[in-house]
Amino acid sequence: MKMKWRDRDGYGLPVMLAVGLHLSVVLVGVAVAAWDGSEVTPPKRPPIVNATVIDVSQTIIGQREAEQAAQAAAQAAEAARKKQEQQRIEQQKRAAAEQKRQAEAERKKQETARQQAEAKRQAELEKQRQAEAQKRQAEQQRQAEQRKQAEAEAKKLAEQRRQAEQQRLAREAKQRQEEARRQEQERQAQLERERQEQAAREAAEQQRQAEEALKRAVAEEEARKQAVAEQQMVQSISSLINQRVTDAWIRPPNARNGMKTKLRIYFLPNGEVNNVQVLEQSGNGLFDQRAVDAVYKVGRIEELSEVDPYIFERNFRQVDLLFNPQDLRN
Amino acid sequence: MNFRNIGLILLLLVAGLVQRAHAQLVIEITSGADQLLPIAVVPFDDATAQPLPVDVAEIIENDLLRSGVFETIPRRNMISRPSDAKDVHFRDWRLLRADYVLVGQVLKTAQDRYRVVYELMNVATEQRVGKKEGIDVAGANLRDAAHYVSDKIYEQLTGIRGAFSTRILYVTAEGDRLAPTFKLQVADADGHRPQVVVESKEPILSPSWSHDGKFIAYVMFRNRRPNIFIQELATGKQERLAQFPGLNGAPAWSPDGKKLAVVLSKDDNPEIYVLDIVTKKLTRMTNHYAIDTEPSWEPDGKGIIFTSDRGGNPQIYRLDVDSKEVERVTFEGELNTRARLTPDGRYLVTVQKNDGSYHIALQDMRNGRVQVLTETYLDESPSIAPNGSMVMYATTQGNKGILAVVSVDGLVKYKLPSADGDVREPAWSPYFK
């Protein structure tokens, strides 16, 4: 098409050069802009803008050339038609002049011939002049149009470039914005995550502390309950020991109120009486012996085997029994 | 206030029995089981092929049962029958709830000679009580050996000297009610082996022991007049000490064995006199228009308690031997007669009439508190065992006089095997030296 364009019209090359120049400016601009942007934007971004510009430009230019060729053809046809019309008018004029010259033929043969030639030459010149003028005017018009077109084209290109630039800038701005927004979002997300993590950590800490406090309270309550339970246990087992020993204690007939014997019983953890020791004697050997017998007869406080070992060790590993009768007749 | 403080306060509140928190636990036992001491008397193995005259273990078992201190494990319940300490499986006896186990053997050592060996075991401690002891006796004395063992066990387990080897005097009236035969008899404390000391067609009354148990005194009528006799048991040698005009009655041996307190009415109405056995010197102790009778010495010999109706109806009075001052001792009951003091002087046993019934009563000399011990009919003539634990008395059962025993705490009562005829006026011997 270019070849055709160049063959048909002598302005093809300059236009093309102009267009090429513009293109190269645009390209360089884009490239520069692209490279400049690369400082901001990631370098991996493909140079879509350049390719798009070239294609668009070419398409637009092609359309323009076709239009220009069609216009030139129409102008040429118009010129030919006008020439033929003038030629036809000329022939009619020449036929009338012939008739007049023939009428005056004699008189003015030379004159006429010279005038005719002069007229003819004048006509020719005029015709030439007019043609020239027309041609000039057409050329001027064409050049003006071309200029106008080129300007328009340039303006359009500039506009396009500007728009492209704007778009690019907009895109880049948008990208930057998006990037910024994304980064902001990320930052926000990060912040949110951190905040949430912090909140979670704090919540966990609070919960841990709450659990700790609860555990502590429970432990204290448990300890208190245990202390009470221990004392209840001690009391209940003591009552049990008292009851069993009382039941087993068969006092000798010579026992008297006020006699006192103190024994120390050593229990095994299974509740068995391991040993009995007389700590304080009553002065009546038989009275002492019966107290010892009573303990051995009881033999085992089975309930002791179910007592918590700690409680056992603290309270029942050794137990003192004071035999101090208050109910005797004597 | 935190939990710990509350806990501490609660702990102190509930401590109760625990006098110091987490210090030595002290449990005070202030009462015991009012129950008899369970003992198993395992039949004594006799190494002799021939059957023994007596079942020694059974005699011991009965002695212990009658004491009111023991309960015995029936033989049929015994899981094993060891005759030696080394064969005693304490678990068996624990199962039977026996606190003590008596095991023993009767060995024939020669013709009519036996050796009784016994060991007393404490089931609780699995230890022998006392030592392993052997008693050599003739066949006729196996009962004595059994009573001896009973005494030892009783003393070891009660702290009180046993009185199973003691004897009793009592009077029986047999045969025709209008003309009975009176017999003064001596028997083991359990009523076995009675022997007639004196037999008479006239009444025999008020037998009494000397404090060494070798002599007895009693009232026996001769020609319808009461006379006071003393007699040596071993020889049967009899001596008439008093045959004063009127009443001669109720002889009571002084603790030193030298004198008799007697009742004489030679000076008008019955009064208390003291008769020196050797010098026959007579000392009048009371002088009152009322009847004074039934004297009995205090254990220390400083006083004589007697029955007098000087207060309007018979009550017990105390006579000071030196000053001859008299003071009233009993105040409860419609009347009190025939008083005897326990060997420790603590209790006074009387026949007390309440609402027309005669029962044996026990008065605490410390606080004057009186307890009626018996519920039998027409109880009379209480006599106290030398260890002060039991009172033997005469009572009436089915129009017949019998002997019965009650413990001084009133908890144990039993009747002696019934002899022929009426049995009256028991006298419990002292310990034989």
TrEMBL record, chain B:
Entry GO terms, CC: periplasmic space
Subcellular location: Periplasm
Location of the TolB N-terminal domain: 25-128
Primary location recorded for the protein, binned into one broad class: periplasm
Keywords noted in UniProt: Cell cycle, Cell division, Periplasm, Signal
Highest taxon listed in the record's lineage: Bacteria
Subunit structure: The Tol-Pal system is composed of five core proteins: the inner membrane proteins TolA, TolQ and TolR, the periplasmic protein TolB and the outer membrane protein Pal. They form a network linking the inner and outer membranes and the peptidoglycan layer.
Protein family membership: Belongs to the TolB family.
This protein's name: Tol-Pal system protein TolB
